[in-house]
Amino acid sequence: MAPPRRAVISVTSAHAPLHHGNETGLFISEALHPFNVFKKAGFPVDLVSTTGTYVPDWLSLQPNFLPENDRKQWEDVNGEFRQKLDNMMKPEVVDPSKYGIFFASAGHAALIDYPHAKGLQNIAIDVWVGGGIVSSVCHGPAIYPGVIDPSTNKSIIHGKTITGFTTEGEDVMGIMDVVRGWGEPLVDEWAERLGAKCEALACYREFR
Fold it and tell me: What is the CA radius of gyration of the chain?
């Protein structure tokens, strides 16, 4: 039996000062873009976070990261994306059996809550066990420590190559001291701990 044609996007509930003292939280395009891709492919899409809340990442709202079309959709508070984001579900009301795709959106703040987000991780496990797709972007792989394959008792990324925002990227952005202060491993460090390899494109030139 094929997995359901419905997607759920996880969102970080964490936030913290980062960009010159401005808040990091959900990097808006990292939820908006997959939302639009899934919808275009005919998938209903839901959003979920641990607390049912989010804080937008300040950097993600700047023109270089939120171009005109994205901004229009973000600012349309009556549109489907904002309605689902602003009235987000908590994990305890989600039925994982409805979904064939779990996508972990991110923002730097995901480093803080995703490793401990048991409710979100359990949804991802159920999608995985049901033959669905579990995926992530940027700092989203911070969710994988608790996404365990019951057949191996290891993270689903064990023995695999993933991509995500690397330690190099944090250094190039000049925010290493801040993110280290959160006391959580970075994405490629999690990959190593979980028996995976993390590769990333050299995409940090605009911060140099």
Answer: 16
Q: Tell me the pLDDT tens digit for each residue of 59-74.
A: 999 999 999 999 999 9
Q: How far is CA 129 from CA 100, 113, 132, in A?
A: 10, 23, 7
State how far the Cα of 7 lies from the Cα of 133, in Å rounded to an integer.
Answer: 9
Q: Known catalytic residues?
A: 138-139, 170
Q: How far apart are the first and last CA of the chain?
A: 49
DSSP notation for 92-119: GG--GGG-SEEEE---TTHHHHGGG-HH
In sequence order, the β-bridge partners of residue 3 are none
Per-residue pLDDT reduced to its tens digit, 91-125: 999 999 999 999 999 999 999 999 999 999 999 99
Q: Report how far residue 61's alpha carbon sits from residue 70's, in angstroms, rounded to the nearest whole number.
A: 10
Say if CB 8 and CB 102 are below 8 A apart: yes
Q: Half-sphere exposure of 144 toward its Cβ, with a 13 Å CA cutoff?
A: 34
Helix (H, G, I), strand (E, B) or coil at 129: helix
Please, are residues 158 and 194 in contact by the beta-carbon 8 Å criterion?
Answer: yes
* pTM for the whole structure: 0.95
Spatial distance between the Cα atoms of 87 and 163, rounded to a whole number of angstroms: 30
